[in-house]
Amino acid sequence: MEKMISPKELATFLGVPVQTVYEWNHSGAGPRYSRFGKHVRYARADVEAWLNAHTVDRSDRRRAQAA
After folding, report:
1. Rounded to a whole number, what is the largest CA-CA distance in the chain?
2. Taking the CB of residue 33, how many other CB atoms lie within 10 A of it?
3. Burial call 7-21: b when 16+ CB within 10 Å, e when fewer
4. Sequential pLDDT tens for the chain (67 residues)
5. Which of 56, 50, 3, 6 minimizes the C-alpha distance to 28?
6. Is the entire prediction scored with pTM above 0.90?
7. What are the Cα distances from residue 53, in Å, to 1, 6, 48, 57, 61?
């Protein structure tokens, strides 16, 4: 089983305040997470999938603006 990361570790990795991570959890905007009692943890694979889904391809944006 892979090591899971905490909200604080995720915030540090992404360079955002930990409060932003908690707001994402509440709104459903962030990566999938697991809850163990009161503790929230993220699987690295879920974080990677979420990042890939939110990656912007600048060449696609330029094509859309030109159309």
Report:
1. 50
2. 19
3. bebbbeeeeeeeebb
4. 788 999 999 999 999 999 999 999 999 999 999 999 999 999 999 999 999 998 888 776 566 565 5
5. 50
6. no
7. 23, 21, 9, 11, 15
